């Protein structure tokens, strides 16, 4: 992630979290943080606890993010922000914490004037899963799934497709909602099942290799300690600790987390399923 | 239309599914064939919060927020098992190719358990920091324990924070063990109660031990303590994994991976032919190569730049000469009267100081006699005489030389002195000559040190540093060193030069040694420069040689003794020469021994 991207993410974050821009130059941005942003970015829980307990007027801080420390004005006080800096990680985490769940309606595509009848909106459940493949190493992928709550049809990738639409949090005029046929819990089940099948279909070489390494390590350990019955109590304890460590280190597993999810009401069939 | 029974069935199903989502992260196991299985863990903690929102229909996030959250998640994912992400996430320095290579091998081949055994100065700390960073980015490390000698705790903490943006904390109090996930602590503290209990009750994602050659004996408390710590990954850092016998290496490897070199008994019979001899060397090397990485200077084309050494002879003025002779006589007299260790050290300081500056001598004389003579109303005649001679010295030939020299160097210069008083005097004199000089010493707090470093890099031409300030600072941007006065201990000298002449230095380094003519200083510089050839090349084995040479007393004391007990100048030269020969002999022995060890353990140098 280059500095240009770090900057544009920062700008959008500040805007989305109502931080007022004081100064914006090519090298830096000065901003008045909102309460939410201050709490997430500046690590001062005691201040916020104090303000809230004592019922004082909150005073979120001003902050200066520097993107180009080489060319900044000499007297400028601020903090260098880059991909990998703790502050930027905090911003990424803050964005994930507050952008978890949405319920949105599609903005009407066309504003036909002589359209007097109300149009139906279909409910969809969209979930963005993060799938992590873990052994002594790790990789992830994001799986963007969506399910039509009328038909049960599953679309992948969902989010990238709806990303180009305009969305609003209020139902637009001359639109009405169709009742979902699938219960929320049911549709989560369906999507999880879909994802589970997908994971099962994937190339399992990584897990196979990890298991092989695991077995080799355990075997080597067995060779090291005397055989069962001849070990001292101490050796026994040490051996089982080592075994636990090896399993911890190598055992292949998949972890699935939900990045965010939402209910999306859309015009009949935007993707021609 | 659903029939009533169908409806019932469906309701039951939904209920069951809600129930399922209520449990915290239940585990589904995916099974495949007989030999292939891995569990899938579903995080379902999000389910209820979402359902609550559905019911209350308030508190939803906006579309912008939703998009930002996904983008944030996308920047944090790890797309592949074996790429290095840490390299894009560090700022301000570029790791060297051999360091990156170590990171790749430790993660890719050694699976996070390794001995990092690079020679001194090749950047083991950087390698360990990068490995830690990489695993942290991948979410494979959340907590870490880093055990180092107590003198290095702060330095490690700082490097991890500044170079790698890893929020490491230096351990100070027992409660900190639970409070901070990334902790740097001294081994000596950690192994004692109550700290020991805290550490042994935890599971550490990684354990890093610096100076791990202290773990070569498995009967020691250190070894047993490290062995008991529960850890997933483990890095042991040492430049000398084998000092004396092969068993030392066996013990280190056993901490990482018991059984990697077989059982103790089979290791003995398979590989050990004698204390320092191995058999089946090729196989042994192969096994060792699976857990140990060693980079050597000669294998890495590291292109350390040249050192260009120049002795600057300085003629003392008449007044200075008189003072020098008087102090030297005084020291000799005192030495013959009371030869206890404490007063000897004070005399040693005095003798060295008279070669540095008048001010330094004055401070020490003052302190010396504040203690010994406070019950008297007047100074003893000898001391009064010295003070009188001090007054006669109105200017310093050395300072003048320093100013002259610096005025002819169009670059940054670092001046090292051992004495505060000399430091102050130099700063004053340079300021008078319109040269911007800043002081640096061990007593400064961290902020002040950082500030002075920044000033030196950006504004000042000269930094005047005392000995204590010599450690822990890196000054690759400067390549002129003045040794204004000379430490008698070669280690100290090497540490000074090492601040500047290190990886990252792009220019040849100029070293100017100030030597006042016909003084002890001249003898010492002759010994260090010509006799043991300390300056031109890095003596990698220096520490070991000195340890071997002076078991009981310090090098300074030994040299002091030689000087004081000699009858005349000629004899001083002769005896210092003998000491130098002993040094050279030891060096030869150690180098030869090391070559043999290297051959056995790591094979000959790559050509």
Automatic annotation (TrEMBL), chain A:
Pfam families (UniProt xref): YqhG (PF11079)
InterPro entries: YqhG (IPR024562)
Domain of life according to the entry: Bacteria
Protein name in UniProt: Uncharacterized protein
Organism annotation: Thermoflavimicrobium daqui
């Amino acid at each position: 992630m280059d500095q240009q991207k770090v900057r544009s993410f920062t700008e959008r974050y500040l805007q989305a979290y109502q931080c007022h821009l004081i100064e914006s130059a090519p090298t830096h941005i000065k901003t008045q943080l909102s309460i939410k942003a201050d709490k997430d970015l500046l690590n001062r829980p005691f201040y916020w606890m104090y303000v809230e307990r004592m019922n004082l007027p909150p005073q979120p801080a001003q902050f200066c993010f520097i993107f180009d420390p080489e060319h900044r004005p000499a007297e400028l006080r601020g903090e260098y922000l880059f991909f990998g800096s703790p502050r930027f990680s905090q911003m990424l985490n803050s964005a994930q914490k507050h952008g978890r769940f949405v319920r949105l309606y599609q903005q009407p595509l066309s504003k036909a004037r002589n359209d007097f009848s109300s149009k139906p909106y279909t409910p969809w459940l969209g979930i963005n899963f993060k799938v992590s493949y873990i052994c002594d190493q790790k990789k992830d992928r994001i799986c963007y799934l969506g399910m039509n709550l009328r038909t049960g049809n599953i679309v992948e990738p969902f989010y990238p497709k709806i990303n180009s639409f305009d969305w609003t949090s209020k139902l637009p005029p001359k639109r009405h909602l169709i009742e979902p046929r699938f219960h929320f819990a049911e549709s989560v089940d369906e999507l999880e099942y879909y994802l589970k099948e997908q994971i099962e279909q994937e190339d399992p070489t990584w897990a196979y290799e990890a298991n092989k390494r695991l077995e080799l390590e355990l075997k080597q350990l067995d060779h090291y300690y005397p055989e069962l019955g001849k070990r001292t109590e101490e050796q026994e304890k040490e051996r089982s600790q080592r075994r636990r460590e090896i399993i911890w280190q190598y055992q292949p597993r998949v972890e699935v987390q939900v990045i965010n999810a939402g209910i999306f009401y859309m015009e009949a069939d935007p993707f021609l399923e | 239309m659903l029939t009533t029974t169908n409806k019932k069935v469906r309701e039951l199903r939904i209920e069951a599914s809600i129930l399922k989502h209520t449990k915290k992260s239940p585990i589904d196991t995916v099974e495949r064939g007989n030999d292939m299985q891995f569990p899938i863990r579903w995080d379902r903690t999000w389910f209820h919060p979402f359902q609550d929102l559905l019911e209350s229909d308030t508190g939803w996030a906006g579309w912008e927020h939703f998009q930002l959250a996904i983008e944030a998640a996308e920047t944090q994912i790890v797309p592949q098992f074996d790429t290095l992400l840490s390299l894009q996430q560090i700022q301000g320095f570029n790791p060297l190719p051999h360091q990156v290579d170590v990171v790749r091998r430790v993660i890719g081949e050694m699976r996070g358990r390794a001995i990092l055994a690079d020679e001194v100065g090749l950047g083991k700390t950087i390698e360990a920091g990068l490995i830690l960073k990489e695993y942290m980015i991948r979410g494979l490390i959340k907590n870490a324990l880093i055990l180092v000698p107590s003198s290095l705790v702060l330095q490690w903490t700082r490097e991890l924070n500044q170079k790698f943006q890893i929020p490491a904390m230096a351990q100070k109090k027992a409660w900190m063990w639970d409070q901070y996930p990334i902790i740097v602590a001294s081994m000596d503290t950690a192994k004692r109660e109550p700290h020991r209990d805290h550490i042994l009750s935890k599971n550490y994602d990684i354990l890093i031990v610096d100076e791990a050659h202290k773990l070569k004996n498995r009967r020691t408390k250190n070894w047993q303590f490290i062995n008991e710590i529960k850890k997933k990954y483990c890095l042991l850092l040492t430049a000398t994994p084998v000092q004396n016998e092969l068993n030392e290496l066996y013990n280190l490897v056993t901490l990482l991976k018991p059984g990697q070199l077989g059982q103790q008994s089979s290791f003995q019979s398979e590989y050990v032919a004698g204390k320092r001899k191995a058999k089946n060397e090729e196989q042994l090397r192969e096994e060792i190569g699976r857990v140990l990485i060693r980079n050597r200077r000669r294998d890495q084309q590291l292109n350390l730049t040249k050192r260009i050494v120049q002795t600057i002879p300085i003629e003392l003025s008449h007044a200075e000469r008189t003072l020098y002779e008087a102090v030297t006589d005084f020291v000799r007299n005192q030495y013959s009267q009371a030869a206890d260790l404490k007063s000897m050290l004070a005399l040693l300081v005095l003798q060295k100081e008279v070669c540095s500056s008048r001010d330094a001598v004055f401070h020490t004389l003052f302190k010396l006699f504040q203690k010994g003579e406070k019950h008297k109303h007047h100074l003893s005649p000898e001391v009064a005489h010295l003070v009188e001679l001090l007054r006669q010295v109105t200017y310093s030939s050395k300072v003048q030389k320093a100013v002259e020299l610096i005025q002819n160097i169009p670059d940054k210069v670092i001046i090292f002195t051992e004495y505060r008083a000399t430091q102050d005097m130099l700063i004053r004199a340079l300021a008078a000559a319109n040269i911007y000089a800043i002081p640096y010493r061990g007593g400064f707090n961290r902020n002040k040190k950082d500030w002075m470093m920044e000033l030196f890099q950006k504004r000042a031409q000269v930094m005047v540093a005392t000995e204590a300030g010599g450690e822990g600072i890196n000054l690759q941007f400067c390549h002129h060193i003045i040794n204004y006065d000379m430490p008698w201990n070669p280690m100290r000298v090497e540490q000074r030069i090492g601040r500047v002449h290190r990886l990252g230095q792009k220019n040849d380094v100029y070293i100017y040694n100030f030597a006042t003519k016909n003084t002890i200083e001249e003898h010492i510089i002759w010994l260090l420069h010509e006799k043991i050839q300390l300056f031109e090349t890095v003596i990698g084995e220096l520490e070991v040689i000195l340890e071997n040479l002076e078991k009981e007393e310090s090098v300074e004391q030994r040299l002091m003794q030689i000087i004081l007990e000699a009858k005349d100048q000629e004899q001083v030269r002769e005896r210092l020469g003998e000491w130098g020969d002993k040094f050279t002999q030891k060096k030869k022995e150690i180098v030869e021994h090391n070559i043999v060890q290297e051959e056995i353990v790591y094979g000959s140098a790559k050509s």
